[in-house]
What does this fold into?
Amino acid sequence: MKQMVMVVDQTINEALRLGTPIAAIELMIPLLKKYSIETVDVSLHHLQRSGTSLEQSLLLPLLRCKTHSSLEEIAEAKQMGFTRLIITWCHQPLHPSMDQLADALAAAQEFAQEVYVCIENAAELSTSELTLYWSLLVRYQVKRLIYQDIGSALEPFGVYRKLEKLQRTIPCPMEFHGHNAYGLASANSLAALRSGVQYVAAAVSGVGSPNHAAMEEVLMVVKHLWKQEQMPSGISLTADCIQILSYMGVQLPVDKALIGRDVFAHESGIHVDGITKNPLLYEVIEPEEVGQTRQLVIGKHSGTASLRIKFLQWNLDLSQTEALHMLEKVRRIASMQKSPLSDLQLHQLYWHRDELQNSQIS
Amino acid sequence: MDHKTRFQIVDTTFRDGEQSAGVVFSTEEKITMAIALDRAGVSWIEAGTPAMGQEEQETLRTLLALPLHATLIAWNRADLADIRASLSCGFSCIHISLPVSDLHIDYKLKKDRKWVINQLKTALQLVQSYGCDFTVGAEDTSRADPEFFLRFADVAAQFGAMRIRFADTVGCLDPFMTFDRLQNLVSRCSLPIEFHGHNDFGLATANTLAAFQAGAEFASVTLAGIGERAGNASLEEVVASLEKFYGYHCGVESGALGSLAELVAKASNRPLFPYRPVVGSICRMIM
It folds into this structure.
């Protein structure tokens, strides 16, 4: 897999669903554009429901409007000024007529510069069922077929196998649009890229209803595990993702892979000791690669090495015996308060360490 | 890929999960979670690290006294004092961990491969002499020489270990890499393999499923994927995925997954992300 990776954003669509104001959305877009965003999908339904008007918006060229195969919806999208249109379609195996889709594509082709077909349940269809659509893709000059897995029906090996096979005969490029009901969307998008697909749907931290592949995971795997250097820099990734989600009123979990607050925080004695000797022992990338910093947390799982390192950061040299005495107290306090110790608490323990030792001796 | 007939869950919420920076479970919370895990059908619970001290040992004794069907496992470094602490708590199932990558052996231990093998032998002699069941963990296997991992496993097998843990300690694999590594090892390894995946790139669940596909027989997971840094493979995602994609029921009731995740969310003071797979509110609403 050596081709460029292009992300089709789904974050903005979720922002619209949540009722995020257009002014905030306009602030989100420049942040997203730093990360291989080729296009931004918005559904006509969310636009209508939120009452958002984009007619004068400078964002329009970047956006693709998702409609059903209804002529009314297509007319509405046209009126809104969209020139890039996705016709979404659900294949009905018992009623496989494609006349309605053909009519919709004909209507879209009259005004849209780019027309896409999204088969929502593609992942649940056989190759022969999907092949039925190839002639329509040619006839209406469909730019790309969007292979959606609306039901999270596939795991990575299935994605790879199916997409690799389809790409041998499909007359236009494909996109992969996975969902994350089972926690596999990022892995599935990576499997799609591995199969040769260039465009994948993703959202910051995988938001969406239904949820998506996490943009930051897909990009950073390609950059760091697959070693593709042309990927965008991640040095402001964490701050950008948090900012984007904050416009939507979404709070990021502290352990969200790559961008969570605590994913470069180390508490356990073994890990802190290791990190001090060589950060690579317990960090897969340097925190700065994604705009984070390493944190040393003192709590229930700390060891004496952690304590000594922590105090050395304040130029306070703790002997091994002092650290050992202090550690028991640290663990007791952490267990009692069910959280790590603050710097103030640690300073208090340090300044009272003699009393601590005496009381333990007695 | 062969259809699997055996794949078991090893829950490490109390050990690797609680090692998550800033997380502390009370004894009462551990009791509640242990009972819930047991009732849901989890057979193996890595209960903690007795070497952490008196207080932890008291909690572990309390857990050991519960009338559970699950086997409780004590996690240990290959250190005789640590192992004695586990034995004195009353554990009859012991996990011994040592690193196997040269990176860890050189930089962390400042030893060599020979020292690791000897240390493993010394530790296993002790647990064997007490008649305990034991499992062995190979830290940082994903960055280790596979031949050394196999040699390490051979030693563990000679002493009678039940299984060997392949630890993707820093989460540096993707599912295709995981499958290739595990497929190569499974057929050559003298012990059943347990896959222990971390989520640093968000791929822990996918990697665990790849290990299953490749013939691993155990997976270590945590509730809500709680664990060091970005956490571990999540129990809910692995259990639900095994059923969804392979029709494999690993013995854990899928109906209990939501309430299990809620328990750890409350105990860790980390509310479940609404977009979280399987158990997040948006996901549950749609499914």
Chain A has a mean pLDDT of 94. Strands of chain A lie at 6-9, 37-43, 63-67, 84-89, 114-119, 145-148, 174-177, 199-202, 265-266, 295-296. The first strand of chain A starts at residue 6 and ends at 9.
